[in-house]
Design a protein that fits this description.
By secondary structure, the chain is α/β, with parallel strands linked by helices. The protein folds into two domains: 153 residues, Rossmann fold; 96 residues. Helix content is 51%, strand content 12%. It has 15 helices and nine strands. Strands 2-5-8-1-9 form a five-stranded parallel β-sheet. A two-stranded antiparallel sheet has the order 3-4. A hairpin with a 3-residue loop joins strand 6 and strand 7. Helix 1 crosses helix 2 and helix 11 packs across helix 15. The longest helix has 18 residues. The N and C termini lie far apart (49 Å).
Length: 305
């Protein structure tokens, strides 16, 4: 288990050592969340690295990562716990065969922790090895409001109430990262319990550094053109702007095609790697892609002069 960072600079260095190039404001939010023992609520567009920060934090701090992937209809049985009914039925049959008929005694036996199936939230609170895990609650905006209400007990008191057993409290609170793509607003009661940070798209310099780390096989000229082109796309009114993940995928795809530089034909043929909606692709490919590329090449040429 790696010790928690002692400063913002240490946090930046820790993330960078695991190939996460963070802006200082994000490193500050993470450092404070670790220092204060508060959940970190990350909001932003899809593909900007919100989920990755939890994965990198778990690796960097040598902690177990527990991920709760949220979706519409998520309930307690999937997120917190459920009883192992098949094992309970077997236990009942064995008790009956042995002549044990006391209902109270049997009830206490089958409603115990050995018949409890722990889901991510309960598992995060039940860790007993001395190293608090990293709990990633991913895309909370996909769940329903009742689940948010249930989550308040966990975030406020680090505990879960199970009617048959009682209250289970964390000996050491987990490191919690909550993400949201903002498809709907999360209730203020949840946000108040967290430190908040909006994760934005990276600027050209940081995205180029990310690309060098994540796709080291991409040539320098191609990498610069890719980043400049993607930065131009993010200034357009598209249905879904490309995230960092799409930039990396596009760079790797172009490298697989042995491309040394961008050209209009290759851009049009590979836009499906970068853009995920047909309306966006139709708007960009062809003459628009050529015009963007001309501006990119002109700007890069002026930078080298």
């Amino acid at each position: 288990m790696t010790a928690l960072p002692n400063s913002i600079d240490d946090t930046l260095a820790l993330l960078r050592a695991h190939d996460y190039i963070a802006e200082r404001s994000l490193a500050t939010a993470l450092f404070l969340a670790l220092k204060m023992g508060r959940p970190l609520f990350l909001e932003g567009e899809a593909g900007v690295g919100k989920t990755e920060i939890a994965k990198v934090a778990a690796r960097a701090l040598d902690r177990k990562l527990l991920r709760l992937q949220c979706y519409e209809g998520l309930d307690v049985a999937s997120a917190v716990y459920e009883w192992n009914y098949p094992r309970q039925m077997i236990e009942i049959r064995l008790a009956e065969a042995a002549g044990e008929t006391s209902r109270d005694q049997l009830g206490k036996g089958i409603f115990s922790e050995r018949f409890l199936i722990k889901r991510p939230l309960l598992e995060a609170l039940s860790t007993s090895d001395g190293a608090a895990p990293v709990l990633l609650i991913d895309e909370l905006d996909r769940t329903d409001e009742p689940f948010e209400a249930y989550l308040l007990e966990v975030l406020a008191d680090w505990q879960v109430s199970i009617p048959e057993i009682g209250t289970i409290r964390a000996a050491q609170p987990p490191i919690v990262v909550i993400t949201s793509n903002r498809t709907r607003e999360i209730h203020d009661a949840v946000k108040r319990r967290c430190l908040y940070h909006w994760v934005n798209y990276p600027d050209a310099q940081r995205e180029l550094e990310i690309l060098r780390r994540k796709a080291p096989g991409v040539g320098e000229r191609l990498a610069r053109e890719i980043v400049a082109f993607v930065q131009k796309l993010r200034g357009m009114d598209l249905f879904k702007l490309p995230g960092i993940a799409e930039t990396i995928d596009w760079a790797q795809a172009l490298t697989a095609l042995n491309a040394l530089a961008l050209d209009p034909h290759t851009i049009s043929d590979t836009l499906g790697v970068l853009l995920k909606y047909q309306d966006d692709i139709a708007r960009v490919q062809g003459s628009e892609a050529a015009a963007i590329l001309n501006r990119v090449k002109a700007e890069l040429a002026s930078e080298t002069q």
